[in-house]
Amino acid sequence: MTAVVPEQQAISRQQVEEFLYAEAALLDAWQLDEWLRLFDDDGKYEVPCNDAPDGDPAHDLLLIDDNHVRLTARVERLNSRRAHREYPHSRTNHQVFNVRVDESAEDISVTASFTVWRFRAGRSSCYVGRYRYRLRRADGGFRIASKRVELDMTDLRSVADVAIIL
Amino acid sequence: MSTDVEPWVSPATEMTAGMPIVVDDPAAKRFRVHRSAMTSPEIHRAEVERIFNTSWLYVGHESEIPEPGDFVRRPVGGRPIFMVRGVKTGNVNVFHNSCTHRGALVCRQDSGNSKVFQCFYHAWTFDSEGQLKGVPDRDAYAGGVNFDELGLKRVARVDSYRGFVFASFDPDIVDLPTYLAGAKDYLDLVIDGCGGSVAMARGTNEYSFGANWKLLVENSFDGYHAESTHDTYFKYLVSIGTDLRGGVSGQAVDLGNGHAVIEYSSPWGRPVAKWEPLFGEEARTEIDRLRAELVAHYGEQRAHEMTELNRNLLIYPNLIVNDIMAVTVRTFYPPAPDVVDVTAWALAPSNEPDSLRHRRLDSFLTFLGPGGFATPDDMEALESCQQGFTSGGVEWNDISRGMGRVPEANDEEQMRVFWRRWQQQMGTASDLAGAR
Question: Which of A61, A146, B85, B435 has a CB 3.0–4.6 Å from the CB of B201, allowing a cystine?
């Protein structure tokens, strides 16, 4: 791993982990407006289909392909009482581990494993997969340029939907 | 299936024995469905035999297997099946996915390309036309085994209509064009509107939820629920500048054999070919060009149907082609009365340029799919219905909306078309008792 800008201090994995844990805590607390502010203005949030984890939104069907406008709408929707699948909200537990940081490109690339547990109305479901982030330095911390969520489950039969934010 | 064990009879089935499950009373303009249709294990078992084993079922699209040896495997009617393009003939072959020797699956990947399908258990090998080509130690078999007869078993009937491949386990079923009846014309509209040649985009939605499959049939062409259930979607449309004032307006059409469609105008945009703010200003010229081409080719009336009108089409019993803000093809099967397994794809013009494809998929994802702004709320509604049924306090669903008038798109005539055919195939609860 080599830093492109030598005079800039290298980013420690611990800094990135702190950021990802803070993000997870916002999601688990359903503080979605604060979560949305972690994204840059051109920030993206993608979840490819289970059978095409390398799916390209330019020509493949994804489960979620949110630009900032749609991501904002997703948050507004989940904050309202009319997103029936998530009103009342699920209880969630976002767990992040196996964090790896690569600073060799302009944006900081981060990969991490995750499990997201979701509990609602007596039902439990678990999402497992890999996060791929592109982060940018901002205000002494990070901003999310993109967050891509690649699922390891071969289909969504055990979880039904992706109505929560992973 | 073993007949030694007396099947368990639910209270609901005992209660309705002797009376129809669907009560169609045109004089009183009343249409009701007994809720045991959604909850009874006996009715579910009878559906597998009388509906799923005796209908034409959607297998897949020819575009999924363009090259010789290309294959996809998936359950059809709850059974493991695979579809492969024959290397010798170029034909679409649909086989039971089971070795003729002792049963193991011979196709064990969801998709790919292969000239041969080898059962890993004892290495019997079949070619893409189903012929048995390799048997280790063949000399060990006496003359009684005719290996020519031990090729892969084809599903009894296979045919396709404009790239949509169907199969039936019933050797005596009517031919596919006769079966599709009036639905053919609406498939034509969808396909011709896409320029005459369509393909499935890469990426499959495979999800399940806790509701009876017939609730998904109803929901897939239910105009009445849109405004109340999908409020957050319409709010999103307004936020990006869509004018909702036109509302939804159209009609329901009975297409014969249980197939039905609602066809209607709507406020949202359509990649072919109705512009909306979501698509961006730069897309206007392209959308206008697509529309002009369709007018030149098909005339103003049919082009209007293709571009401005939406279609939610049911091909009985379990194929939905919804040509709305994008085109989704959705099929489903009930592993149990209160579970439905759904598989859905995005249908698009073949060789669609990336810019148009991206816009189409964008439009798809705002509403459709398990991560969209609408589909999860539909799942919630249907699961909620299924849970409500178990209270037992209310016996009947009411599906009478619009019986006193020419059926509009927000009425329930399309659902009645489905249910009448369902009743015809299933018979009454007492027929079900007799079948045991």
Answer: A61
Among B398, B429, B392, B432, smallest CA distance to B415 is for: B398
- The answer to whether the pTM exceeds 0.80 is yes
Per-residue pLDDT tens for A124-134?
Answer: 999 999 999 99
CA distance B272 to chain A (A): 16
| Neighbouring residues of B221: CB distance < 8 A, sequence distance ≥ 6 | B260, B261, B262, B312, B313, B314, B320, B322, B414, B415
B201: domain CATH number is 3.90.380.10
pLDDT tens-digit readout, A68-97: 999 999 999 999 999 999 999 999 999 999
Distance from CA of B427 to the nearest CA of A (A): 32
Compare CB distances from B209 to A50, A52, A160 and report the shortest one's residue.
A160
Under CATH, what is the fold of the domain A13-151? Nuclear Transport Factor 2; Chain: A, (3.10.450)
- The answer to whether A48 faces chain B, any CB pair under 8 Å, is yes
Same domain, B306 and B380: yes
Any domain includes B70: yes
Measure in Å the smallest separation between the Cα of A126 and chain B Cα atoms. 14
ipTM of the complex: 0.93
Is B397 within a domain?
yes
Is the distance from CB of B321 to CB of B331 less than 8 angstroms? no
In the listed set B140, B168, B196, which residue is the last one of a domain according to the structure?
B168
